[in-house]
Amino acid sequence: MRKRRRSWVGLACSALLVAAGFLATPDRPASASDPLTLEATFSNVQNGWVRVERWRNTNPNFPTEDYLPDGRGDQTGQRATFFGTARPNSGRFLLYYAPGWNTGSRQPVLLVHGANDTPDRAWANPNELGDFGCGAISCPQTGLMQYLSARGYRVFAVGFAHKQGDNYYWAHHIHDAIEVIRSRTGADKVDVVGWSKGAFAARMYVSGVRKSWGPAYDGHVGKLILLGNPNEGYD
Known about the structure:
- By secondary structure, this protein is an alpha/beta fold.
- The protein has a single domain (about 30-225), classed as Rossmann fold, CATH 3.40.50.
- It has helices spanning about 10-20, 75-85, 120-125, 145-150, 165-185, 195-205, and strands at about 35-40, 50-55, 90-95, 110, 155-160, 190-195, 220-225.
- A seven-stranded mixed beta sheet has the order 1-2-3-5-4-6-7, sandwiched between helices.
- The chain is globular, with a radius of gyration of 18 Å.
- About 40% of the residues are buried.
- Residues about 1-25 have low confidence and may be disordered.
């Protein structure tokens, strides 16, 4: 890419635009919806991930959703550490980075887990919950994340604030995660793999099903792969 000399006036204008949130930076990706704030970065991560970031969408419409008395929606383990609480506001999400996210030669892939699940158990360590944690007598200790990463894909996963949360908010953060990934990698499109409840949210996003203040689909999903969800609806 050819570099151009810029005047001090141009630099000053750019600085003002960045401060106002109109230009993308590594910590402020371009977005058609709301400004995103990178709140924290973690490098001491379990289950094979190399990095986790906590992002916040600053749209004031995001609530702290009601959490179930039995704790099914609560964050546990390292996820509670990353969020800073077991019951975060739904404007926050986690973005997980797999090995090779910045060196792989193939399309970026975003993995979207299902209800009462996490990016760890769903994609990186099905054995995290022990025996029968993956629905089998013996669960593997690596998952789709390692499989794709080893084959040159740039792999990411999104973690939601409420593990049983509203799919409108999940769909919104799928958009947000894609914007961050595009900013980090320079890719125009991101492939999305959705499992179960996560597949509903992914399909909602690409279908334009959203709240009035939510982001419209902007065409930045390359391939959409839906696993284990009933596409004709669910009560």
